[in-house]
TrEMBL record:
Residues 2-338 form the FAD-binding domain. Pfam families: FAD_binding_3 (PF01494), Rng_hyd_C (PF21274). InterPro entries: FAD-bd, FAD/NAD-bd_sf, RIFMO-like. GO terms for molecular function: monooxygenase activity. This is FAD-dependent monooxygenase. Keywords: FAD, Flavoprotein, Monooxygenase, Oxidoreductase. Transmembrane segments: none annotated. SUPFAM superfamilies: FAD/NAD(P)-binding domain (SSF51905). Its cofactor is FAD. It comes from the Bacteria.
Length: 479
């Protein structure tokens, strides 16, 4: 075997997954088609749950060091969402270009000796009972690589997904727009702010400062709608868009890069195909509304990494790896739904403008804000984790903890010293600490998975975690 896991694609999903696997002791090899990093960024934000995830591993400070801004709000089709209502150390969006997140993750991998093979394109794959064989084209020609698992994190046009023949239901794009980074002159503004996505008959033209006169520009209107998907974006198209929306107050000096995107919306039917798994844009595509795609992909990676590592280490309970699909497919489906709804709120039509007004009023109420902000921020994700007894914390995230080792954690309340003994057989995969959470004044003992989600809760002196330990952490090393 050349590796335990081959990861196809060094985008944010593949790079985070490789980091998680490395942390858990797996041998990983990342294949990336592009010979060099382009430095280009589609996404510009980390949502609160992604920030929490990076904090769990102790990686957030380094990422924040590369950030440009924080925004205390999220948005739904440009309508503001208040994140400060949540119990989180990060009730804000981190404004950071995707390329800087990737740079941090790739540097960390190479610092730990994990090969990121650039200029290596995965062409084909075949799997059997023992592993996966990938055909790869690299600078020295074609070769095959073999691993126990392969993860397709190779983006929306995923070769892995196509070679699997995996069903990818949904619909094609209906709306086309342009994203570009350009140096602008004039009154383009210097503040980070939420996107203004209320279209008039000319569509939308949103500008966000990236520093040194560089701006992110999102342009959508009749000209973009009528353009062929593969037509190059010209300087003239950008100039015409700026003139239409800003008169001569904002002028183009230099176009750094530009591309077209659509609101195509599709999700792969199954995230797992034997020894091949799909994650990130390879598993789901949707319009960028709300700033969710990168975050969704990174959270896929975080869910998958420890489960795959457990399988490789030989202690995964039966079915653990399948919970990746069971838990992440519904979350992806929800994002597809909310982005389609946001797309409707961006249609340039007087009646839609009325609908936006109704939505804006609704989102100003605490209940609606909490519901939608919880979804967009990733903070309200509840995985279907059954427990005895049932508890409202089960399946949700536990904020303000650290899991730097990538192992699970049993947090026990002062009166439950017996739990230290209960967890001892799993000491190689579950850490143990006093200092439990409280809820409504009651002391809680909590078992947390390596991805920070609660898989067992007990209040007071009741309850033993044995079943949950078996379910999520397998057979103990010494019975
Ligand atoms: C205009 C626009 C704006 C966006 N804004 C936001 C935002 O603000 N917030 C947000 O969260 N999301 C946003 N997104 C979405 C976000 O950029 C994507 O969801 C994210 O890039 C997905 O990451 P990924 O790693 O899954 O895939 P990708 O970033 O596409 O990475 C896949 C990698 O795989 C490589 N690859 C492809 N094929 C092969 C192969 N055969 N072999 C080897 N390597 C291969 C590619 O070169 C690439 O490096 C935006 C998207 C667009 C289009």
């Amino acid at each position: 075997m050349d590796a335990d896991v081959l990861v196809a694609g060094a985008g944010p999903t593949g790079l985070l997954l490789a980091n998680e696997l490395q942390l858990a002791g797996a041998r990983v090899l990342v294949l990336e088609r592009m010979p060099q990093r382009t430095g280009q960024s589609k996404a510009l934000n980390l949502q609160p749950r992604t920030a929490e995830m990076l904090q769990l591993r102790g990686w957030l400070d380094a990422v924040l060091g590369r950030a440009m801004a924080t925004l205390p709000a999220g948005h739904f089709a440009g309508l503001p969402l208040d994140y400060t209502v949540f119990d989180t150390p990060f009730p804000y969006q981190v404004g950071i270009p995707q390329a800087r997140v990737e740079e941090f993750l790739e540097d960390r991998l190479t610092g730990h000796g994990v090969p990121v093979l650039r200029g290596h394109e995965l062409l084909d794959l075949a799997q059997d009972d023992q592993g996966v064989t990938a055909t790869v084209a690299g600078p020295d020609g074609r070769r095959t690589l073999r691993a126990r698992y392969l993860v397709g994190a190779d983006g929306g046009h995923s070769t892995v997904r196509k070679r699997l023949g995996a069903a990818f239901p949904g619909r094609d794009g209906r709306v086309s727009a342009v994203v570009a980074d350009a140096v602008l002159e004039g009154e383009a503004g210097t503040e980070w702010r939420l996107p203004e996505l209320e279209p008039d008959e000319n569509g939308v033209c949103f500008l966000l400062p990236l520093g040194d006169g560089l701006y992110r520009l999102v342009l959508g209107g009749p000209a973009q709608q009528g353009a062929e998907r593969t037509a190059p974006v010209t300087e003239e198209e950008i100039r015409a868009g700026l003139r239409l929306h800003h008169g001569d107050t904002v002028r183009l000096r230099e176009l750094r890069w530009a591309s077209r995107f659509t609101d195509a919306s599709r999700q792969v039917e199954r995230y797992r195909h034997g020894r091949v798994l799909l994650a990130g844009d390879a598993a789901h595509i949707h319009n960028p509304s709300g700033g969710q795609g990168l975050n969704l992909g990174m959270q896929d990676a975080f869910n998958l990494g420890w489960k795959l590592a457990a399988d490789l280490a030989g202690w995964a309970s039966p079915g653990l790896l399948d919970t990746y699909h069971d838990e992440r497919h519904p979350v992806g489906a929800m994002v597809l739904e909310n982005t389609r709804a946001q797309g409707v709120l961006g249609v340039p039509d007087p009646d839609v403008r009325v609908l936006r007004g109704v939505f804006a009023e609704l989102l100003a109420t605490p209940e609606a804000n909490r519901r939608i902000a919880g979804m967009i921020s990733g903070l309200d994700i509840r995985y279907p984790i059954a427990g005895e007894p049932e508890h409202p914390l089960l399946g949700g995230r536990l904020p303000r903890i650290e899991l730097r080792s990538g192992r699970g954690l049993l947090l026990w309340s002062a009166g439950r010293a017996d739990l230290a003994g209960a967890v001892a057989p799993w000491a190689d995969r579950v850490d143990c600490a006093v200092g439990a959470a409280t809820r409504d004044g009651a002391d809680l003992s909590v078992l947390v998975r390596p991805d920070g989600y609660v898989c067992w809760v007990a209040e007071g002196a009741a309850g033993q975690p044995k079943d949950a330990l078996h379910r999520w952490f397998g057979e103990p090393a010494r019975a």
